[in-house]
Amino acid sequence: MASKAELACVYSALILVDDDVAVTGEKISTILKAAGVDVEPYWPGLFAKALEGVNVRDLITNIGSGVGAAPAPGGAPAAASAAAPSSEPAKEEKKEEEPEESDDDMGFG
After folding, report:
1. Average pLDDT of 6-21?
2. Using CB atoms within 10 A as the burial measure, which of 11, 71, 79, 82 is most buried?
3. Compositional bias (Acidic residues) spans (predicted)?
4. For the chain, percent helix, then strand, then coil, each to nearest 5?
5. What's the structural domain count of the chain?
6. Which domain range does residue 31 map to?
7. Does 28 reside within a domain?
8. What would the DSSP string read from start to end of 25-45?
């Protein structure tokens, strides 16, 4: 769980980003002093250094866009073939399936 100092620095950085102000250790310290939050002196500089060169606004707006956005592999062709009824009888697959490995083959036996 994040400490009070970490959370205070995160909120201060978000305030600065929201106001379109550059995130620096001095500005984070100023916000923390105005809020009456006492933190170790290294925290503001640490957060400013971590956010250096990072577009925080893009980070916030793109949360979740990369995870789970792609459809499951093989889902669309199976759905398309099931949705489109065929007038021909289903042909048997001539392809041989690979035999499944037993537990003994994997060393679990």
Report:
1. 93
2. 11
3. 98-109
4. 45, 0, 55
5. 1
6. 4-62
7. yes
8. HHHHHHHHHHHT----THHHH
CATH classification of the domain holding 45: 1.10.10.1410
Contact at 8 Å (CB) between 28 and 13?
A: yes
Report the amino acid identity of residue 23: V
| Burial category of 48 from C-beta neighbours within 10 Å (exposed 0-12, middle 13-18, buried 19 and up) | buried
| Number of continuous H segments (helices) and E segments (strands) in the chain | 5, 0
pLDDT value, residue 68 = 52
Say if 54 falls within a structural domain.
yes
Q: Is residue 56 part of a domain?
A: yes
pTM of the model: 0.56
Tokens linked to 9? 């620095």
In a domain, 102, yes or no: no
